[in-house]
Amino acid sequence: MNLIDSLIGGGWLKTPRIIEAFRRIKRVDFLPKDLEDLAELNEALPIGYGQTISQPLVVAFMLEQLEPKEGDKILDIGSGSGWT
């Protein structure tokens, strides 16, 4: 089972628009080359300079709790990787 399907199956991803965003924006594109094979793990991963890319479950939880509507803007402070 891939990462997104496991987040859906676990009840972390529910909203169709958020699910579509997870499917379209690939986490692998925001990782260092040497970590690309770990992109499907549900873990925070190091991205350099003592920073990590967020655990997908945490990102899914935050977005679902926010209940964003079309046109909303969300600022994620500390999103050093650009993926959230």
From TrEMBL:
Gene Ontology biological process terms, A to Z: methylation
Q: What is its main location?
A: cytoplasm
Q: Does the keyword Methyltransferase apply?
A: yes
Q: What is its EC number?
A: 2.1.1.77
Per UniProt, what is one GO molecular function of this protein?
A: protein-L-isoaspartate (D-aspartate) O-methyltransferase activity
Name the keywords, alphabetized.
Cytoplasm, Methyltransferase, S-adenosyl-L-methionine, Transferase
Q: What Pfam families does the annotation carry?
A: PCMT
Q: Where in the cell is it found?
A: Cytoplasm
Annotated Gene Ontology cellular components are: cytoplasm
Gene3D superfamilies listed in its UniProt record = Vaccinia Virus protein VP39 (3.40.50.150)
Listed PANTHER family: PROTEIN-L-ISOASPARTATE O-METHYLTRANSFERASE, PROTEIN-L-ISOASPARTATE(D-ASPARTATE) O-METHYLTRANSFERASE
Name the family the entry cites: Belongs to the methyltransferase superfamily. L-isoaspartyl/D-aspartyl protein methyltransferase family.
**What name goes with this protein?**
Protein-L-isoaspartate O-methyltransferase
